[in-house]
Fold GTP cyclohydrolase 1 type 2 homolog.
Amino acid sequence: MPALSEVIAALDALWPPERAEQWDAVGTVCGDPDAPVTRVLFAVDPVQEVVEEAVELGANLLVTHHPLYLRGTTTVAASTFKGRAVHTLIKNDIALHVAHTNADRADPGVSDALAGALDLRVTGPLVPDPDDPAGRRGLGRVCEVDPPMNLAEFAEHAAKRLPATAQGIRVAGDPTRTIRTVAVCGGSGDSLFDAVRAAGVDAYVTADLRHHPASEAQQHSPLALVDAAHWATEWPWAEQAAAQLDEISDRHGWGLRTHVSKTVTDPWTAHAASAFSAS
Ligand SMILES: [Zn+2]
């Protein structure tokens, strides 16, 4: 069985840490490089519920998309919720490794997994990485919808294909509009509207869209917006990442067991349909 350092080296080859944004905090949060690894859990958020899931599974490694600590810290006391996660991990010999914006920019990356979950055909990155001569890496993806469907059908399709959350799918635009091309960005995507407009797509699938950027995007063009829960747009990456590690494990004869967390860690837990009309 491989040592943690060997598994981390394989993960770093998939998502090179130097490709993360400057502000990001990716890499190994805790773990002994010499410890053996037999079981790995992949998840979006390193929250206590997910850490407990790793303990229950007997995992030696938890790989998450979101960092536990994004800025410097002076305490891992178990009286803080992040410190409690660190204590639970270390007491149970579980390493934590983070692949965040380095996984966003990878090929395949977070948005490829989102496109795959929606059965979309990726034609290229939405914001190409200037350091990639092949032009395959970058943020977001531009995709084709085959066969095309109208916006109402496309939203139903997304609701069926993405894991269920309280939010479900929010939609902006004419429900009868035919959707042939889509830009997708797993996670918060309202900083990419300029690139989405430049791509000339019929719809944009992302998460966390705020009032003003969404409203302005609608004024500029008939661009349809499909907004899912942040967690739901990134969860397909956990499945993709587990499959990538399975393939590496088979190649090396490591015999790793990989798992994908089924815990819904989106912070929104309920949805009430409006019952009062202002008009
Ligand atoms: Zn995210």
